[in-house]
Amino acid sequence: MTTEESSSIENLWQEIEELVLGLAQLARTDLSSQKFYSELLDRAVRGMSAQGGVLWVTDAAGQLVVQQQRGAHPETNVGASLNEQEIEQHRLLLREALHERRPHTIEPHGRWSEQHRGVNPLDENLILCPVAIEAHPTPQVGLLEIIHHPPRSFSAQEGYVRFISALCEISEDFCQHSQLQKLRELEALWEQFERFSEHVHLHLNTEQTAFIIANEGRILIDCNRLSVLQKTGKTFQLIAASGVEGIERRSETVQRLESLVTAIQSLNRPYWIMEAEEKYPPQIAEPLHAYLDLAGSRALMIFPLSHIIQETMGDTDSDVAESHLTVGAIVIEQFHETPSSHTILERGLAVSRHGGTALFNSLQFESFPFFPLLKHWSYSPLRKKQLTGRKLLTAALILAALSALLILTPADFKIEGTGSLQPVDQQNVFATADGVVDQILVRQGEQVSAETTLITLRDSDLELESSRVRGEIQTSLKRLAVIQAARLGLNPTDANALQQANRLTAEEEELNERLKSLNEQATLLKNQQDALTLKSPITGEVLTWDLQEKLLARPVQRGQRLLTVADLKGPWVLKMEVPDSEIGHVLAAQRESKQPLSVSFLLLTDPDQTYQGTIEKIAAIAEPDADGKPVVQITVKLDHETIKGLRPGASVLPQIDCGTRSLGYVWLRRLLEAVQRELFFF
Predict the structure, then answer these.
(1) 3-class secondary structure per residue, 480-540
(2) What is the number of structural domains in the chain?
(3) Do 483 and 604 share a domain, yes or no?
(4) pLDDT tens track for 28-74
(5) Which of 298, 479, 505, 625 has the fewest CB atoms within 10 Å, i.e. the most exposed one?
């Protein structure tokens, strides 16, 4: 052996050693199984300068399938495909190699041994080596097959087998590392689940419970956003969302989400969409596409929040029928990567089970007015003490004095509500026809005059129809000119001239009638095109935020609200909402007073300053608010020049002055009304 050949062999074995050591280092990282086995196969083929290699695994039916491959496939010979018999012999060879569970080299057209029936159908050497394949719940055994030219010596062949064996042994380390990593992840998951189940049952306040479900549930599931909705009647209303302190009830996203969940929960089952083009049931197709277009979710899963009610059936305790009372729903969303549906299903069900029970308990707590008092009394030390006659007399006197104080002491009686500040002169601009927003000529905060062009729409069908009508008008005019010229060119002495003149006259009249109809169509189409130009109805300021992103190049429907213009320099009012159950007190106070009732309110942006106003108008009927609860609209007149930081839609906390009542009634009226409603059915 020459010095050059010796150096070449030394470099080769050094390269092989680096390939093995590099794979051993990768086996102890968090590399995915697909990338690890891809690296294993690449290094095996590269280290032997092989023609190709295949990593075989068994499927659920026990059949060998290709998981990874590089270069030539063993069942496709160079230049010609193997016949069915040769393929079957090769597959038999692979199954025998799996059974033997040890590395071996197979010569061209050779067998594992004389006792085996599988044959290498290729003109190349095969190295077959078992390899551990990472799988759930336990690793399985696959087979690594390397195709290479027959080596020059037996020692070289043995070296190749040792090299492939070393790579395959490293796969066992990778499987052990992966299993250990999964155990660690499972342990961390159980810790998160234990913390979630502890925290979600900690409070009996609905808002706090929903907040915990949304935020800690999102961490447990590992999703981008988790929303919690409460069932009210037949509809669902958003009460919490992860990463959000409060819910904007008027948001279009919120409204579309509520409509979607209401529609989906009518199917009475969990529902999930994983970027699959499916034909959805007709009752959810429209709200689903409407929400996905606005939210941009790549994956969406909806689970009901239910409380399990158990009823024992029969003679034994084991004979139990379970029924579920739905109190809400959770919505799981992914905006970037699409998660594993199996993982989401398991974790989503766990969150929904505990979250449903916790939400049910909090709703039950808040629905029973005496429960807080009873709970406090049950823990009171006074309940366990024996009371003597003197103590009872003393307690009775104290109670009588307290009652007298509550009855005889006057107090201000105020009815609270919710509201916002609005300019009186405020107009919404609606789409006058179906179309696509072509131009937006204004922006939020811009001052506009009446009849100023705000938005232009484009209707492709209308444009085509207008083009068609214009074309027919031009064609008819040209034909009319030809007929008129032909009439002028008739020879009066010609015997057929009269007949030709009558024919041309009839055709001319027909064309004139057609031109009249076409011009009417053109006028109508022009009016329709003019209607696509939306102008400001008043002089004022554009209030709608982010018009370009919301509307530009987007389709709109006739009657859809696009933007709002308001005169901020004119008079302002307070638009107030009072629960329908409270409006009776307001109407009674209004009848007793000769003057409009006074209203005091605080701006949420300036809670240190109290402002005054007077009731201008009370709506005759109640209407449902954003939560579906009946409310009565009240318009309050105010002096807007005295209000600091005035802006449209500014939230306020208003109180209507309804005179005076006894202190006891002011403090306990809701309890008294609840007693009447719940116990006596008044």
Answers:
(1) HHHHHHHHHCCCCCCCCHHHHHHHHHHHHHHHHHHHHHHHHHHHHHHHHHHCCEEECCCCE
(2) 4
(3) no
(4) 887 888 888 888 888 888 888 888 888 888 887 778 888 888 886 76
(5) 505
Q: What is the pLDDT of residue 318?
A: 46
Domain boundary at 539, 563, 587, which? 563
Tokens 């083929």 appear where?
45
Residues 534, 590, single domain; the answer is: no
Distance separating alpha carbons of residues 434 and 111, to the nearest angstrom: 75
Note the pLDDT tens digit of each residue in 565-624.
998 888 899 999 999 888 888 998 888 888 889 999 888 777 778 888 999 999 989 888
User: Which of the listed residues 538, 563, 588 is the one where a domain comes to its end?
Assistant: 563
Domain of 57 in residue numbering reads as 3-182
Task: Give the 3-state DSSP-derived string for 467-480, with helices as H, strands as E and coil as C.
Answer: HHHHHHHHHHHHHH
pLDDT of residue 266: 66
**Nearest Cα to Cα of residue 562 among 249, 248, 252, 247:** 252
366 CA to centre of own chain:
29
Q: Is 575 exposed, middle or buried (0-12, 13-18, 19+ CB in 10 A)?
A: middle
> Could you tell me if 605 and 513 lie in one domain?
no
Question: Considering the domain boundaries, does residue 387 fall inside one?
Answer: no
Average pLDDT, integer, range 666-675:
71
Residues 124, 112: contact at Cβ < 8 Å? Answer: no
- Which position has the token pair 């009371």? 387
One domain for residues 227 and 347: yes
CATH number for the domain spanning 80: value is 3.30.450.40
